[in-house]
Amino acid sequence: MNASLTTHLSGYPRIGAKRELKRALEDFWHGRLDAAGLDRISKDLRLRHWQEQADAGLTFVAVNDFSHYDGMLDLACCLGAIPARFGPAASPLTLERYFRMARGRSRDGGAPDVAPLELTKWFDTNYHYLVPELGAGQTFQFSWDKAARETREAVAAGFRPKPVVIGPATFLALSKTDSGDPLSLISHLVPAYRDLLQSLADAGAEWVEISEPILACRRDEALLSALEIAWQGIRPASPLKLLLAIPFGRPGEALARICSLGADGLHVDVTRASADLPWLHANYPQDRVLSLGIVDGRGIWRCDLEALRSLVATFRKARGDRQLWLGSSCSLQHVPHTLEAETSLDPALRSWLSFAREKAGELSAIAREQPDHDANAAARAALTGRRSHRGVKNLEIRKAVASLDESSQRRGKPLADRLTLQREHLGLPLFPTTTIGSFPQTAEIRRLRARHRAGEITGPVYEAGLNSAMREAIRLQEEVGLDVLVHGEFERTDMVEHFGQMLDGIAVTANGWVQSYGSRCVKPPVIWGDVARPAPMTVEVSAAAQSLTSRPVKGMLTGPITILQWSFVRDDLPRALVALQLAHAIRAEVRDLEAAGLRIIQVDEPGLREGLPLEPGQRREYLDSAVQAFRVATSGVRDETQVHTHMCYAEFDDVAEAIAALDVDVISLEASRSRMEALGAVASGGIGAEVGPGVWDIHSPRVPTTGEIRGLLDRAVAAVGAERLWVNPDCGLKTRGWVETLSSLRNLVAAAQDLRTAASANP
Ligand code: GLN
Ligand code: ZN
After folding, report:
1. Ligand nearest the Cα atom of residue 489
2. How many domains does the structure of the chain reveal?
3. Domain CATH code at residue 244
4. Of 270, 302, 333, which residue sits at a domain end?
5. What is the pLDDT of residues 535-573, one digit of tens each?
6. Could you give the angle at which helices 373-388 and 305-319 cross, rounded to 10 degrees?
7. Which of 58, 513, 609, 613 is the most exposed place for a label (fewest CB within 10 A)?
8. pTM of the full structure
9. Å from CA of 394 to ligand 1 middle
10. Taking the CA atoms of the chain, what radius of gyration do you get in angstroms?
11. Which among 303, 333, 363 is the end of a domain?
C-alpha cells in the first residue's frame, strides 16, 4: 500500500461547476424557487464537492466553506452579531433575514427595504465579503449551528470532515464598529467561539481549521495580543484539535509567537511564506502537525510535481509522515472549478493549467510516498512544453518593452498647459457632462450576443445589431444634451475579457468562473504569453461613433493594471514586466485612436487601488510599477488630446499620490455614496487633474433629482473649485435600464446647466 501524507483543502469552489448556486440564488430571489428548493440544490452541491475531494484521494473534505452568500456573514450570524436594523436579536435567522443583511432585500422586484452590510475585498483576492457591524458593548452568543449541520451532513455521507472557520482575530479586525477598536471585543467573543467549536466536535469533527488571514497583513502588538487572548480562551478546553491557518501571507517575525499560541497544528501558505520554511523546518515542534499549503489556491498553473515532492521530502525526512500534512495555500474558491469544460482551449495551454478539481489531484499525487511516474512525466512535459511554446516568448515585444525609456512615460507639456490647450481645442462649457462608458446592456443586446455565440446569426448580422445600438446611443446622448459622448460598449461582455479576446498572449476560458460576491461571478482571462496587439481593437467602433456627431466622443479602453489585476497572470515573468507589455499594447491603441480623430481617450483603472499589496513594505514598488505602466499606455499622444481615467469603489486616500503621478488630464471617481468624500484625496493629495466625482449612484435603479445632484455638485465645487469640475455618474451604466438612465442623465445635465447659470450670474 502506498502510504500517503494527510491531505486537505482550505475550501473548494462553492458556486458549482455549472454555476448552479448562482442560478438557484437568483431563482430564489425572483420567487421562482422556494427555500426547500434552494436547500436541496445547496446540499447537492456540497455532497458533490465533497465527493470530488474524496475521489481525488484527499484525507479530509473541507466543510463550512459553503455559503448562501458569504462566510463572514455566516460567522456574524453564528456569533449572534446581527445589527438591530435587521430585526430583534432573538428573531429567527430565516433566509429572508439573511439575504436582507447581504442585499438590503430578500426578494427582487421591490426597492431595498434596508441598507445591507457593506461589501469589500477579501485580502488581495477578487472575492468580496460582507463587513460585520458591531455596536458599542456588542455581545456575542453562539446562535446558528450551520457549520455543525454541514459537518453532520458530511459524516452521514461517509466523509471525514474538517470544518473551516474564520478565526476570531480576523473576524474582529475586519469588522466595523461605531467607536473603538473592534479587537477590544476579543474576550467577549471567546465564549461564543468555544460553543461553536463544541458544536463541531459534537457533530463528529476531530479537527477544525481556524483561519487567520489577517496575519498576512497585520502583526502589530494589538493584533497579536488579541490573538493570544483568544487562544488562551479556546485552546485549553478545546473539544477538538485546532489547526491554525495563515493564508495569503508570510508571518515572518511573528512566527515564534504564533507557534506559542499552542495550536495542535499550523498551516502555512507556501506560495507566500516560503522564506519561513527553513525556520519551521528547524523549530516547529515535532509533536504537532505542520501543514504545508503547497498547491496554489490563487493561480491556475499546473504545478511541478517533482519539485514540490522534493520540497516535501526534506520535511518528510525530518518529521516523518504523521505530523506532516499537505494542503492548498488558501481556499480553492479563488480558482475556477474544473478544466473539464474547457474543450475549446488550445490543447497545449490547457495542459499547463489546473483548476480546483485538478489541483485536488495534484495535491494527492504530491502526498503519495511512491511517485506516480506517469503523472510526474505528464507534469514535466507540460512544463517543458510551456517554456518553449511559441508566443510565450515574443522577442519583438521583449525588445520593444525593454526600449521603453523615460521619454515614453512623459507627455509633452506640463498638465496645466495641456489643460489650457485642450480647453481651446475641445471648446467644452464649464462643468462638462459625460458618462463613464457603457450604456444599458439590454435583454435585446444580450440575446443578440447569445445568438451569435450559438451560431444562429452571422458575424455581419451581429455587427449590424451592435452598430444600430451604438447609433441609437449617440442619438440619445445628443438628445439628452451631454457634452462628451461615448459609443456605449455594447460589444463588450466585460471590460477585461473584451481586450483579453483581442490581445495575443491572453486566452479566455469558456467556463472559468470564479465567485466575486453573492451570485456574481467573473471569468478572468489567462495571461499565458508575451502580450502583443496584432491589430487595432477599438478604433473602428470609436471612429464610427465619432463620425455620427460633432461633439467629442471618448475612446474607451481598459488600463494595463486593471487587465493585470482581473486576470490570472503567468508565473514565469515578474508582474511588473507583464504590466509593461500590456501598457505597450494599450499605448499603440491610444495612438491609433488619436490618429482616427478621437480627441478624448479614457483609460479605465478601477483595479489600481485593489492591487495594493497586503504587506506595507511591498506597496511602493507596486505603485511605482503601476504608475509607470499607466504612463507608458497614455503618454504617446499630443498635448491637445485629452486623456481621462476612471476609478471606482475604493478608498483613494492611500493611493492619492500615485493618482497624482499618473499625470492624467481628467479623472472620474465614484463619489456619490460618500457624498463627495473622495474629493478629499484630490484636494489634499496634489492631484492637479480635472475631476468628475460621480453624482449618480448607478448601483441603484433610483433616479436622482436635479436638486440632489446640484447639492452634490455644490459640495464638489467647495472641495476643488468650479474650473476643473466635470459632471458624470459614478460608473458605467451597463446594468441599468434605458428609462432610468435617460431620466437620470436629463437631471444630471439640468444640474450642470443650473450651475453654469449660477456661475455666470455670479462670476
Ligand atoms: N468604462 C467602463 C464602463 O463604463 C468602466 C467600468 C468600471 O469602472 N468598472 O462600463
Ligand atoms: Zn467604475
Report:
1. 1
2. 2
3. 3.20.20.210
4. 333
5. 999 999 999 999 999 999 999 999 999 999 999 999 999
6. 130
7. 613
8. 0.96
9. 30
10. 27
11. 333
